[in-house]
Amino acid sequence: MRTIANLTSEFQSIFITTETPRTFFAPGRINLIGEHTDYNGGHVFPASISYGTYALGQKRDDQKFRFYSMNFPETGVIEADLSNLTFNESDNWANYPKGMLLYIKEAGHEITQGADILYYGNIPNGAGLSSSASIELVTGVLLDGLFDLNMERIPMVQLGQKVENQYIGVNSGIMDQFAIGIGKKDHAILLDCETLEYQYAPINMKDHVIMIINTNKQRTLAGSKYNERRAQCEAALKDLQRELSITSLGELTTDTFEKNKHLITNEINQKRAKHAVYENARTLEALEKLQRGDLQGFGKLMIESHQSLRDDYEVTGLELDTIVQAAWKQDGVLGARMTGAGFGGCAIALVRNEKVEEFKENINAIYHEVVGYNATFYTAAIGDGAKEISKED
């Protein structure tokens, strides 16, 4: 684990300076419950975590931006001029900060000189914990801090999503940037993805931890299957709209869905819609459970969520099912589910403190036997959203 002192000396070495840069951090995120509900007009329930992206920056006297990532040292220092911030494939990962810089300027914020910026991320690679949104938001808070922009946080979050959608070209929702930008220590966020209304829910984990289990499977199917699921939900909605005055599946209660599901003529589309409706109901119920400190009830909702993602939405797969179903049987586990888009990536589990080592050992033994390689385990503390840090956190 790198310390800020390490990162500072790395910055000074790369950019040949004796001055101390300012340090900023943006977390990754997990989604505790509410999967594939965002684009169906429903709610999500993410939290920002202790893993994330550090950015150290210092203003320059010219109009040049120089970016360096300790995660991709082979790309060296990537340069961009304030006068030309268009997307360039050869700029690789640096397109994320370039996109933020461009859209912040286009939003009317004055940036008239360049900066040297060093990035370092400790989010596990390919784990689906949202490293790209973490880079976007850490760049946002760094530019806000270095250039005294006084940006409002939600507009910054929206610019992060705009970078993802329009600059990079990935058609994702706003949950990742929102959780990373608005996160709060020891709290999850219930977010309505349509209206951006949100409220915090306390997570009192004194006897339990949230374990993140990375399947270490490359998520090759995620993109195409994601688009397919989205189209199936849209087709189901269209069928329902023949008799119901709704604009999204997220508006339906489970009762209304059950009374009208016969309108969805395709059996597979009906299953997809069922997941979206019931998952949204579980997400709203999760807020109540956590507000009452009912971790056991919350764990039960996690189990139901995974079963629905496995059976009705069909986005889990061998790796995630092996981990999650093994977790359900372990002593000291309140609940477990896949998190993220599916087809690989990560699962999460609520595990009693004193059972963590036994849990890791047992799950990995089962996983290795079934899948043939190891899973990786991380303990997630729920931390604050993107911010400047002046000392070790």
Polypeptide structure, described:
It is built from eleven helices and 13 strands. By secondary structure, it is of the alpha+beta class. It has two domains: 199 residues, 2-Layer Sandwich (Ribosomal Protein S5, domain 2); 173 residues, Alpha-Beta Plaits. It has a six-stranded mixed β-sheet, with helices on both faces. The chain is globular, with a radius of gyration of 22 Å. The model has no long low-confidence stretch (mean pLDDT 94).
Q: How large, in whole angstroms, is the Cα Rg?
A: 22 Å
- Compute the separation of the termini in Å: 12 Å
Number of strands: 13
Q: Multimeric state of these chains?
A: single chain
The strand line-up of the biggest sheet is 5-4-6-3-1-13
Helix content, binned percent: 40-55%
Low-confidence stretches: none
Please give a handful of descriptors for the protein shown.
11 helices, Alpha-Beta Plaits, Ribosomal Protein S5, domain 2, alpha+beta, globular, 393 residues, single chain, 2 domains
